[in-house]
Each structure stands twice: as C-alpha cells, then as structure tokens.
Recover the amino acids of this structure.
C-alpha cells in the first residue's frame, strides 16, 4: 500500500492533479477490502513496469501476485453485503476505475475498455438516481453521493478521452454529464477543471470526424466534403472556449494551487491548438493543407517539449511513468505524421524518445517508432534527394490514413494508405 500511496496514486491523474480525489482513493483503499486489493494489484503491476530497463524492451512475465490481488478484489466485490445499494455501487465504480488503470498498464487494452464501458453505464444510471433522490440527506448518504460524483467524473473523463484512440468509441452522455451549459453571458470559466472538461468534449468531436474520415479511406470510399456548418460550429465553439479560458487566467478565477496547475494550463493550450488545427484543415486535400499550419505545429512542439521537461522535474527522474489519462502523446503523434517539415518531425522524435511515458494505450517509444517509419516512407520515396522542406514531398508520396495496433511491448502492426493511390499497405515494426 505504501507504493500505491506514494507512487501510483500520484500518477493516476498526473496531468490534472486533484488532491481531494487522491485523498478519497487513499481513504477507501485503506478501509474497504475490495478497493484495497484492487489498489495493491495496481501498485504491483506499476512497480513491475517501473522496474523494467529504461528502454522498456524487456518483456515482463505475468505478475502472479498482481493477478492474485486483482482476482481477490473481484471476489470481494461480488460477495460484498450492504443494505445500501448506492454505497455498493459507489464501491463497484471505484474498483472499476482501478481495474481500468490496471489493465491499461498491464497491456490488456480490450479488458480495460470493457471495465471503462461498464463503469460509464453504471455511473450514468446511479448518478441519475442519486440526483433525483431527495432521501439522501444524512451524513453517510452525503458521503456516498460525494464519492459517486468524484469517481463518475474520473470515469467519464477517461470515457471522453478514449475517442482520441478508438475509431468506434462514442462517449456516453458526456455533454450532459461533464460540462454544465455555458450561457452566452458567461465571460469566464470558473475553474481549470471546467475548462478542461469542455475542451475534451470538443476534442472528442473533432477526433470522431477525423476517425470516421480515416475509416472511409481504409474501405476505399472517397470521404464526402464535410458540411460547412459542422466545421464552422466547432470552430465557433473553440473560439468561445479560448476566450473563456484566457479571461479566466487573466482574472485569476481558477482556484487550483500552483502544484495542481503546473501542467494543466500548457496542456490545455496544446490540446486547443492541435484541435483547432485539425478542424481548420478538415476536408478534401487536407494532406497538402497541413503545410499551411506549420506555425501551429511548431507552437505545439514547443509546448509539448516544456510539458515533458516539467514532467521530468515532477517525477524527479527519467524512469518510465504511467497515467490512464491522455496528455501529450497523441498530439506528438499527429504532428509527427502530418507535419512534413523535417526539423519539426525530428524534434518530435527526440521528445518521444527522451523518456518512456504511457498514457492509456499510448506508449512514447512505440509512437516514436511509428512516426519514424512514416518519415522513412514519405522521405524515402522522394527523388529530390535529401528532404529539406515540406514542399519536396509530393501529394502521392504522403500517407493519408494510418492506424496501428500495439501487439506487444516490442511489436507494432501498422496499416496505411497513400493519397491519390489505391491499396492498403501493412507492416510489422519492432520497437
């Protein structure tokens, strides 16, 4: 439990630190057996991950101790007896959250998403019941309601972020659950959490459009031009978000401590810029259109570089780290495969290889290998010698649709198509 308290728990929401949530996790992991066993299982697999060598190339055997605690947590959860169904559900949600983190870290991604989907469904039903039940007024019920609200927020956040890496993933009830309506006269966000939740919804919408378009490329269909209204609506919402966010920072309305905000503000700027860039370039001919957004890509790389440096200072070492949340890795991946400027691409590679970082299913070293391969493909096809500018990579040389699956810690399978060309290409890469 000491490892969970001092190491694991610190990284579960590293990009959006919340001391209240960490205290809640510790309290229930110390007082509720099923939560304690789930926490110990996560701590054991986390420690095994950190004990790997820096390059992360050693394939770890299954951790029997971690699996023992994992299975014991399930048994205790199934056998729990409580007259308070809301309390039982709250504990189940908390264990579900820890299991999602465990399976992500263990590389059991399908199982992790099953836990997440189950947690989302459960939280949606119980959250509605609690909000509509006026009988929950005593101290114990109030504490249960607080726990449900806290863990629901964490699960829904992971649910929304899953849209950044799963093509067929649609967040459930996210608009109504995570973000209160912003009325026209609101001039600022009330907290960084509120700003982050609203931005994540916009990110999920943009990634959904991008993923749907990519899937059509893989099936041989020609993506239709996007309705201008969709693009314009999202751009307008992003502009509103930016104004509210900057007003909040200028007015000092956010109540987070410096320690809690050290990474949140630059991370939100990073995610805003890349989302704005993706939707601005959305549509026919976007692979060449990306060249017009070099300043935005360069700004994102600078922000990501600063965030990773702060991440190193925060963790105090270059040891591997893990968080179930999405941070900088998807942004660096997008820049690496879509920005054809040779210097920007190589800067992305250097950042990704600086430290082994895991964000949900994302692995910085595997991401670097995929980016490196796309660079080799696009620049290697050029007949113009050494690539010194984006313009040297013609449209037919550019990879259009790209997907990849992490088969193991040392193997990645990629599938891709070229612009203006028919056919799907598949390769296996060793990390």
């Amino acid at each position: 439990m000491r490892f969970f308290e001092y190491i694991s728990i610190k990284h579960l929401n590293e990009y959006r630190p919340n001391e209240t949530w960490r205290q809640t996790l510790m309290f229930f992991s110390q007082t509720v057996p099923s939560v304690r066993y789930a926490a110990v299982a996560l701590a054991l697999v986390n420690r095994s991950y950190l004990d790997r060598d820096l390059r992360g190339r050693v394939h770890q055997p299954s951790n029997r101790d971690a699996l023992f605690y994992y299975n014991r947590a399930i048994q205790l959860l199934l056998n729990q007896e409580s007259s308070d169904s809301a309390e039982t559900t709250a504990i189940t949600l908390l264990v579900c959250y820890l299991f999602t983190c465990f399976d992500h870290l263990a590389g059991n991604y399908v199982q992790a998403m099953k836990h997440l989907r189950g947690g989302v469904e459960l939280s949606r039903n119980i959250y509605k019941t609690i909000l509509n039940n006026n009988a929950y007024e005593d101290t114990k019920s109030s504490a249960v309601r607080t726990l449900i609200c806290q863990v629901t927020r964490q699960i829904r956040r992971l649910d929304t972020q899953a849209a950044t890496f799963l093509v067929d993933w649609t967040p459930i009830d996210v608009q109504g659950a995570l973000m209160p309506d912003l009325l026209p006269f609101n001039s600022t966000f009330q907290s960084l959490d509120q700003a982050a939740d609203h931005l994540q919804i916009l990110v999920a919408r943009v990634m959904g459009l991008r993923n749907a378009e990519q899937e059509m490329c893989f099936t041989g269909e020609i993506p239709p031009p996007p309705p201008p209204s969709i693009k314009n609506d999202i751009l307008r919402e992003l502009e509103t978000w930016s104004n509210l966010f900057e007003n909040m920072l200028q007015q000092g309305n956010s109540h987070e401590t410096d320690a809690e905000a050290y990474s949140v503000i630059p991370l939100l700027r990073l995610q805003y810029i890349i989302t704005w860039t993706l939707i601005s370039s959305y549509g026919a001919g976007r692979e060449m259109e990306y060249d017009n957004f070099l300043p935005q890509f360069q700004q994102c790389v600078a922000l990501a570089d600063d965030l990773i440096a702060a991440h190193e200072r925060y963790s105090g070492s270059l040891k591997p780290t893990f968080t179930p949340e999405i941070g900088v890795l998807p942004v660096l991946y997008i820049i690496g495969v879509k920005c054809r400027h040779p210097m920007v691409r190589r800067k992305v590679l250097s950042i990704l290889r600086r430290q082994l970082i895991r964000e949900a299913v994302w692995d910085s070293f595997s991401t670097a290998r995929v980016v490196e391969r796309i660079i080799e493909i696009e620049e290697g096809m050029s007949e113009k010698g050494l690539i010194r500018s984006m313009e040297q990579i013609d449209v037919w040389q550019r990879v259009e649709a790209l997907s990849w699956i992490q088969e193991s810690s040392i193997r990645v399978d990629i599938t891709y198509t070229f612009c203006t060309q028919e056919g799907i290409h598949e390769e296996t890469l060793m990390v």
User: Anything to note?
Assistant: Residues 192-218 form the longest helix (27 residues).
